[in-house]
Amino acid sequence: MNYVIIGNSAAAIGTISGIREIDSTGKITVISDEKYHTYSRPLISYWLEGKVSDKNIYYRPADFYEKNGVETILGKKAVKIEKDKKCVVLEDGISVPYDKLMVATGSKPFVPPMNGLEKTNYHTFMSYDSVKTIRSELREGMKVLIIGAGLIGLKAAEALHAYNAKITVVDMADRILPSILDERAAMKMQKYIESKGVKFILKTSAEEFTEHKAKLKNGEDVDFDMLIVAVGVRPNTELIADAGGKVERGVITDMTQKTSLDDIYSAGDCTVSYDASSDTEKILALLPNAYMQGEVAGRNMAGREFYYVNAIPMNAIGFFGKHIISAGSYDGEEYIAETENTYKKLVFRDNRLVGYILMGDVERAGIYTSMIKERIDLGEVDVEMLKSKPQMMMFGKARREEKLGGIIK
Amino acid sequence: MKKVYVNEDWCLACHLCEFYCAAANSGKSLINAFKYSDKKPVPRIRVEEGSEVNFAVQCRHCDAKPCVKGCIAGALSVVDGVVVCDENKCVGCYTCVLSCPYGCVVIDEEGHRIQKCDLCTKNHNGEPACVQGCPNKAIVFEER
Question: Which of A20, A130, A210, B119 falls between 20 and 30 A from A261, CA-CA?
């Protein structure tokens, strides 16, 4: 069997792992327009901050491809899938034939049209190359303007803070981190980040840019030496769409991760997932999701049937030492407990835990995550224990024995 | 594969397993680790106490391995069936804390990165220290 994978991040590595569980000899070729050995995209902010070395940004050991019998074509973009000829065409015209193809093309930074943006030397914050460029232009104490108070924008802010940058973050939304936090938690986190010296200007956007100045719609002017646009991302769906595959907001796949095209699979940030916590289809641009989708796809590509189920939105992230873990849906009956430095929200619906936010104290959060994924009925747990902290004690003896491996007979 | 299992009917909630675990992984003696250290080492096994039963929980080295699959840094891996963490690679994002259904990935004493049970394969203890230290044989290391 001849496998070709377009992409070289988490979904691609998951695919290799899935294939090799079943097929130890088939040929695997990885194609990526980035020239690097597989690296961890979420680590770029840590690299910029100086917390991760050049060596540790890599997602797998140096001998990973060799050990897994993978050939690589790096630094070349795949520009077309010729599905009738079953080959991928590269930017230099070379055709790479496949029996089974994985499209794990991820996403690209979304840069909305903004007046005068072309007059600036703006950066996005998405790839190793983007942070290398930022690093080369960065000087101590620079004034930095970040457009976007989401996960990427604030990780960029944290990294740049290490260079004593004077940081202003502007966002149209009325709160920071709207994808993972509710209003209350967002306000607490905003205050915390502000206490580190980062300035936020919310509920407004840039009216016009000149080379080193943004004129905001609320009338304020913000001077900057460096501009970072981190408004959001868009899935790279062109290859599948151009080949006639089904694409909505992202690539549509079935539960085996196969696209609507024969022998072509897709996984990761370029795909639409089924969110089991809200019963809706959405893009779950999360590294664990990408890896696990890739793994399921790889097994199917190698001929064994597996399904990807129980995906939910979930996120673990920290800013300036304060951590947030969140998962699931926030639509339901709420239980909230907070202290000066912590926040906990549990969301219940249909007699189940469907979502949560933990900030400050995140220990053992995965027990809550498992409650959501396994759709455990509240009738099976001690709800007061559940509310007080995540613990195995809240499960009844039978389920606990099943989970922990049974008692000694 | 041999794993650590707990009999919750026999656990006295004495917490000795936690002390032995933390000391073994700190490389210090029990006394030095807990009496003469600025920061007490954090155990990778935890005793949960209830009104009727008590039990210790640590990494199940489970088949699903959501911690390894979700690790953003490639710091968690499987070596001969044992889930191990490369502390030099861990960036402390806590995606594994989010993912572990047993709540068995713990945050280290500095609060910067994670640590977890590796069945004492990375320290010099030989057999899991929690099993050796349990006075009531409520924790065993065996094949099931």
Answer: A20
